[in-house]
Queue: 2 jobs
Job 1
Amino acid sequence: MLGTLTKAGFAAVILAAAAVLSPLKAQDYPTENVTVIVALGAGGSMDVITRLYGEKLAERFGKPFIVDNRGGAAGNLAAEAVARAKPDGHTLLVASSGVYAINKMYFKTLRFDPDQDFEPIALYVKIPFVLVARAGSPWPSLPDLIKAAKAEPGRITFASTGVGLAPHLAGELLKAKLDIDLTHVPYKGSMAQAISDVMAGHVDLVFADPSLAIPLLKDGRLKAFGTTATERLPQLPDVPTIGEAIKAPDFEAVSWHMIAAPAKTPKAVVDKLQAALQETLKDPVIVDRIKSMGLVPVSPPLGPAAAKVYVAAESEKWGALLKRLDLVGKQ
């Protein structure tokens, strides 16, 4: 009978067989080690959290989840590697909002398309910033700081880890919201150096990584004006959100972590990973570790569809700001 099938009929049989077999392949996933490429160097919050849940996923699936740190080029090197990887769920990307929502506007050319080359699995943590000054800062509160900035436009300076990166854009978003002028002082990727120079009085302000700022605030070496999250951080219950302080509850300027697979990874594999992460990220050890660093768990994590909606909104927000600043295609 096979000899009597037309070419079209034979193709239909093959497609039907593939449809039956593909769920079985997803059930067997993973069939080999899973490499999770992290778009930052070792030791930071992204790396620490990935390793925590990677160990849990390895236990769950019976295959190692190997973390491969590939920092540099604002995360673009890691993203490019995953965009070109085989779409079978055995190579994954963990990156921040810069890779998924900012770089496509800021860089003239990218060797990947963040909207087309990745399938979101879970968006699971937000990283707010803490607006801080040296302990002896002359401004008692954020309203006082704003008043001073309006009185002497451009005199007050703020540091960041570099032009077009999240801490810089957090400052620019606040400037735009309040119609004030602060002078930006970019550092080349070093948040620690930026904070050190703020403490020394060389720069007035910085939108600081909470994992670095919180210990210094508790030691009395920094003063906090507010956080860029929509809710107060448990580690800093007396520090208002910037939204509270300026009476704009919708103000939010955060980075975030998302794990994604190459585009065309089978939906069943993505769904299996997403379900596993939903359960894994409920682990109290992981939740407590995230909170201890001043980060905000997204609970439950946003799955593929919800993550796409959120990323689109973030892309629109930061893209509009980059246009306002004439930073589109500047890198």
Job 2
Amino acid sequence: MVIGGDATGMSAASQARRLRTASELEIVVFERGHFTSFSACGIPYWVAGDVPERDSLIARTPEEHQARDIDLRMRTEVLEIDVAGGQVRACGLESGAESWTDYDKLVIATGARPIRPPLPGIDAPGVHGVQTLDDGQALIETLERTAGKKAVVIGAGYIGVEMAEALVKRDYGVTMVNRGAEPMSTLDPDMGALVRTAMCGMGIEIVSAAEVTAIRTGADGRVSAVVTTEAEYPADVVILGIGVRPETELAAAAGLPLGKHGGLLTDLAMRVRGHENVWAGGDCVEVLDLVSGLERHIALGTHANKHGQIIGSGVGGGYATFPGVVGTAVSKVCDLEVARTGLREHDAHAAGLQFVTVTIESTSRSGYYPGAANMTVKMLAERRTGRLLGVQVVGGEGAGKRVDVAAVALTAGMTVEQMTALDLGYAPPFSPVWDPVLVAARKAVAAVARRG
């Protein structure tokens, strides 16, 4: 039995079906929404018009899953898990009918939910979270029928930044209200400042270090403004980009173990700790950070799909493990590519590590080659050992995916000195003679030597 029909849930179901026929293994999936196997990461680009059709974001429809002998029950919400009895209570959202269903093996893939702070007016018409295709459709309909053209985005993480750009492409005037000093708290503030400069350059007003206290509504009950402790910002539509939390209320009520971030705790095979026949994966679990050694909650489709493959192997009688992550992510703001992997300075301090940092300026191609774009690379290395701890990259076209080299180095536990010998590809259309990541590594080697 699988709870949740998106990336992890349907990947697990599909992998288990590859390993076991319908006569050997019955697979039941409960999904409360209208869609399965869709790309939530693509929603901002659909809203912006870069992706013209909603269905382009759907990897596999419910009908396609059902054709593979998966008993997929759409618009059905699980209300309770009875771990001791091996059963769940579910409700058909259209009929209202409730029933209990037995299971031998349970997969929890409930994902994450957008953070929705308990502010006055937070549920007013015109206030949108963006997590599912239904959310995206509702937002597009609001944008198309709203007479005004003022939008406020609350939060400046990945979804907030991407949605701000999408609204600009729809000719909205955008104000971004952010609690932090700079956008993109997944970066160090000095690198986030580069993102702020790019966003301001495309006409987005950024309000930093601001605490939202209420969402004001007009006489018609619709949103009219976002109120902070210092000011009020007119709004015809409001986007919540504050982040997400693991959707683990069902698991908590069933007595399953949660970590300090609220996500389920699993072993390497994605089994819930202490429960032989219960697995969990995707945005509802915490994962091991291979650099710091601590548990983290990272909501990314890449991890969710991997978790599903591993869980499906275990359920189907095979074997696979998920060792952990290094925290790699990449995004785009207008023509600026933003990427990070490993630890920020704050993370390194929290893990008790002593470190050095270096920042270099370079270009994506040889400087004389047409189209060379500027790039800033920041690198963290452990003070005594020189072990690579983290890399952040902000720059033009060709900058973002350079973070993958650093992600491999982090996974391998390489030092910055070892990185300087990497045999990376070179030709003027692709890189300077010294790739920017290697330039940063050389500078980090010198910094480690100076600090002893």
